[in-house]
Amino acid sequence: MGLAAAVGFALLFTCSALITHRIELFGSGFNGLWPAGGLPIVWLMVRGATVVSIDSVLLLAAAFAANLVAGGETELAAAFAVANFAQSWAAVMLLRRWCGDLWGCGGDRPIARPRDVARLGAALGVATLIGTTLATAAVVLLPGVNGSFDPVASGLWTGRNFASALVVVALAILIGYRVTSPPPRPSLRGADGGQLELLVAVLFTITTYGLAFSLVELPLAFPLLAASVWFGARFSTLLSAAHSCVVGLVTGLLTLNDIGPFANVADTDLGFMIAQFYVATIALTGLAIATGRDERQALATDLRQAQEEAGYEVSMRAAVIGSMIEGVLVVDEAGDLLVHNPAAARILGLGDELDTESQFALSSWTLDGQELAEDERPTSRALRGETVESELVLVRVADVGERVLTISAIPLPRDEVQHRARALLLLRDTTTEHAHREELAAFAGVVAHDLRNPLAAIDGWTEMIADELDAGELDTQLAREFVSRVRSSSRRMRELIRDLLAHATSSSRDLDVSRVEVTALATEVAAARHASGQVSAEPVPPVLADPVLVRQVLDNLIGNAIKYVAPGEEPKIVVQGCRSDARLVTVEVVDHGIGIPEQDREKVFDEFHRAHYREYEGSGLGLSIVRRIVIRHGGTIQAVPNPAGQGSVFRFTLPAYEA
Ligand code: ADP
């Protein structure tokens, strides 16, 4: 397969040399019109040949044969074959070195940049000069030839080979790339030029060349260049190279046959030489213009893509930052606010008006109310390069008051344009969390205290029992007394623990609402407390509430009403209710007990607050549980004096079932 391809190339090369030789029979008699100069280079490139290979042998043989047939003497034909061989190999090696990323030269891309054209031209130019030098040296130095140095002949060799190599190699690279690249391939016409324009450009070429080659008395060579510029500027690089190839061939052939402006020179060889350089010029011009345009278009495409990507990135970043629950701020050391999200503005109570000044409102106080010095603020610390993690600070927000924020501050890379340090601040409004934590801590303190009291009593009484036992003085009466005190203390502890559990579940339990008949529930609670005779339950409109929690409310209120009566007095309780508005039902638990002093009427709903702690036992949690439950249902509760004179009325609202 490899050998067949090499032989194929050798035959093609020999034939092209012979054909051009035959054509020249009609012309000036000079051998070697292109493409013979470019073909061996393409051959070695396509085959990826090495210097020591069958291709080299065949190339040498074919060049020798072609030069012989073209009418040279044996010695000169051999010398020219060596010059052809050296020139072709020099071109291939330089192309592999200077244009290694182009198709056929070791890479896989087409000629697409003016830099490619310059390197291609330089490689082929240097190779052609090597060939010229060798051929000229052979003519001058070979004893059998004994020629003299003829600058026109050397120029002719150079021009012919350079023009041929440039046009043929450029075309081969462009075609090779196009054929081997996977579809879909771009249009052969290029992105700019349409079909009609192509037709007009072809007609323009034919007309200008027709005129320039027929009206030789007039210096009409200059419009010819316009056709190459047109093709280079408007059509694909491949089409532009093909155009150069066709007009180059036509120019060469016509000049050889003494037609046209280049044949109009007195010395035919000189004219032909000028024609060859003209072909090289239009080929280079066309390629340079086409690749320049390609490069610009590629840059524009890259730029557009980069812009689209940047736009996408920006919108993505804005969406992410905008949807964060945490407040995000980026500030620099000059105090400029560079980035902020709606959450930050919301947390700082500033609506959307967060601006450079606003960030100074941040992080000014510690939780115990001490103002932070400027350089102790999380922002300042992060701007100095320190990372601040979840620090609690107090901010005073206009119209809103104090807020507890958890702030993290992270140093960002410096702004190298403005030479400023930057920092990222993450804010979380932890005011409620903080209040809960505080409340929990206080609660735990009271719980510990209240549990310790009965425990201390149990300890004390059991110790006395032990002492009496040791002394052998414990009579049954005394033992009974001590045991009853211990049991009373442990009962108090049990009740406190029960109330604590009820307190915890009153806020954590999920509401499971349904139609609740308050009257029936109140009757049940009274029965369970063996107080049916003391509680009268009047009709109350049905409510939409959690029955378990409403039972807890009634149990606490009825329990208190039974408990808080003067000693020896019989409790008398009424549960009644009515629709207070379209949405709510008001329920009242009315008693005739000891009443609540005015200053305690609101405080009794706080945890552990007791108005009658000396005379009556209790944990001080019942009413706080009641208030929590009512509030969770969207209602309110208050304690007022009984208008009938003695006792209290606990009045609360719950959602009406029929609302
Ligand atoms: P406890 O009854 O365990 O002390 P509560 O939270 O139920 O705790 O009540 C808080 C305080 O409110 C009681 O200590 C008592 O002083 C007062 N109180 C509650 N209900 C009544 C009532 N019906 N009459 C008079 N005082 C009451």
TrEMBL record:
CDD domains: HisKA. It is an enzyme of class 2 (transferase). It comes from the Bacteria. It catalyses: ATP + protein L-histidine = ADP + protein N-phospho-L-histidine. One of its GO terms (biological process) is osmosensory signaling via phosphorelay pathway. Keywords: ATP-binding, Kinase, Membrane, Nucleotide-binding, Phosphoprotein, Transferase, Transmembrane, Transmembrane helix, Two-component regulatory system. GO terms for cellular component: plasma membrane. The chain crosses the membrane at residues 41-64, 118-142, 162-179, 199-222, 229-250, 270-290. Its EC number is 2.7.13.3. Residues 446-658 form the Histidine kinase domain. GO terms for molecular function: ATP binding; phosphorelay response regulator activity; phosphorelay sensor kinase activity; protein kinase activator activity. It is found in: Cell membrane. Pfam families: HATPase_c (PF02518), HisKA (PF00512). SMART domains: HATPase_c, HisKA. PANTHER family: SENSOR HISTIDINE KINASE GLRK (PTHR42878:SF7), TWO-COMPONENT HISTIDINE KINASE (PTHR42878). This is Sensor-like histidine kinase SenX3. It comes from Nocardioides soli.
